[in-house]
Specification:
Blueprint: E1 2-6, E2 27-28, E3 31-32, H1 33-42, E4 49-54, H2 59-68, E5 74-79, H3 91-102, E6 108-113, E7 116-118, H4 122-126, E8 135-142, H5 146-149, E9 153-157, E10 163-168, E11 177-186, H6 191-199, H7 207-215, E12 219-224, E13 229-231, H8 235-253
Length: 254
């Protein structure tokens, strides 16, 4: 298995913090957001390599991060060639770029968005995924509020845990189960990314649009995360996760 981390955003809603630092390298709780992910990935033996997609503006920053880190997994950094937000490829095109670079060498792909913090173990998410060569999985979090659900891609599950409906930022969400940017894609289904972009000519910007489309084409199941989840979209959400980690640190010390 290989991991693809999508980290090519420009983080404009976090300016000035992200004018010269990528969002994924902002520090909370003594580590960067990306390092919090890497700590989880380092402990999963099935993962061989991490492919991180960034933009041209922040490529050097991620290169420095990799050089200074002590990772158990090989980290490959892919530059999507964009230097300004107006020229960004979009998350689905960045995913396609990573898959092309890998040339389908992995058995499966764990796809992660870099602007998240969650404390649910990724190893628990992967348990039902492994060995399912024909099935996709999506990580979910119950935000328990229909008003907040309007900000996210939300999922309805049937009685067997299968995704029966996926809405991306709907004004009338049918569920409070939010997609939190964690996906499992078997290698044989990676061709669907090409189909979505090159044949169907659909929206390359939001990964949720692709996952919603994919749920209508392939069998997809949801895995609900426990613990806490933070979508780092603005300064307030960054403060919230920093406060949570500080509180958890105090409790652990006690």
């Amino acid at each position: 298995m290989k991991v693809i981390i999508l980290a090519a955003g420009f983080g404009t809603r976090l300016y000035p913090l992200t004018e010269h630092t990528p969002k994924a390298l902002l520090e909370v709780g003594g580590r960067t957001l990306l390092d919090h992910l890497m700590v989880q990935l380092n402990g999963i033996e099935a993962i061989q390599e991490v492919i991180l997609v960034t933009n041209g503006k922040f490529y050097v920053e991620f290169f420095k991060w990799r050089k200074s880190g002590n990772f158990k997994k090989r980290v490959q950094i892919v530059d999507d060639g964009c230097f300004v937000p107006e020229k960004r490829l979009g998350a689905v095109k960045d995913l396609h770029l990573a898959l092309k670079k890998d040339r389908g060498l992995a058995d499966d792909y764990l796809i992660l968005c870099a602007d998240n913090y969650f404390d649910y173990p990724l190893s628990h998410f992967l348990l039902p995924c492994l060995g399912h060569q024909d099935t996709c999985f999506v990580g979910l979090y119950d935000i328990k509020c229909l008003e907040k659900a309007k900000l996210y891609g939300v999922v309805e599950l049937d009685g067997h845990g299968r995704v029966s409906d996926f809405q991306e930022k709907s004004i009338l969400p049918k569920s409070t189960l939010a997609s939190l940017g964690v996906y499992y894609l078997p290698r044989k289904l990676a061709i669907r990314v090409y189909q979505y972009l090159e044949i169907e000519k659909l929206n390359p910007d939001r990964i949720g649009d692709f996952i919603g489309w994919l749920s209508t084409k392939e069998e997809m199941y949801g895995v609900t995360f426990d613990g806490r989840w933070f979508d780092i979209g603005d300064v307030e959400s960054l403060r919230e996760v920093a406060g949570y980690l500080a509180q958890r640190s105090v409790l652990n010390a006690a």
